[in-house]
Amino acid sequence: MGNSAEEYAAFEEKVKRTVYIDNLSPLVTDAVLKTALGQFGTVESVQFIPNYVEPKNIPQCALVVTQTEKQAKAIIFEMNNFPFMMSGMPRPVRALPAEVKMFADRPIKPGRRITCQWLDPSDRNFDVAQKLKEVTQRHAREASYLLQVNLNAKLFDCHGFRSINLVFFSKQNCVLIVEIQRYSLAQLQLEEEEKLAAEQSETLKTNYKKCEMLESLFSDGSHGRLAYRFNLKVTDD
């Protein structure tokens, strides 16, 4: 019991040092986040939260564990009050304090017990249990249907469809088309991010070549000859 209490206390302390960040680019990696947030302190770990709603599993949310609670609060304050730059571009990200329920690997709280029993229709909790059963069954049906929608969306995407116009015969067909369009938008967003990343990489290479050229001019004395040719005054500063 003592070990469980200590483990949960350590977990609660970890939650206080964790920041929940969403609206992330699909191309963001843990290394990018660690570099971007390193100015506020030490980032111990980054855990992306899988997106089970969209047809593609794009990491758009993450839990960032810092070294101290003060560092976590600093990240939340800065990201919510000032433009946040990532890879040289402003990003509309949002930072919030993490909550216990956000951790899939959270330990069991000490003292918590789960009991199971059959309820008679005359029991005062029977109606509540019946509603919970109905909600669970509905969620199971929705999850099964969503998996089928994801499969259909991937099949449509494999055939190159981006927009589909069909006659809607049922509510399920409407939902299917909406999900396929959302899948197409997610793909479009990913393509735009890849294009932006390529442009930024090319700009970085160009700037690096310019720096190399300037360094070469100063190292071999060419800058002095150029200054003399164009009647310019060059100092060591």
UniProtKB/TrEMBL annotation:
Keywords from the named record: RNA-binding
Pfam families, per the entry: RRM_1 (PF00076)
PROSITE patterns registered for this protein in UniProt: RRM
Keyword RNA-binding applies: yes
Domain RRM: 17-100
SUPFAM superfamilies xrefs: RNA-binding domain, RBD
Domain of life the protein comes from: Eukaryota
GO molecular function, one term: RNA binding
Protein name: RRM domain-containing protein
Species, as recorded: Papaver somniferum
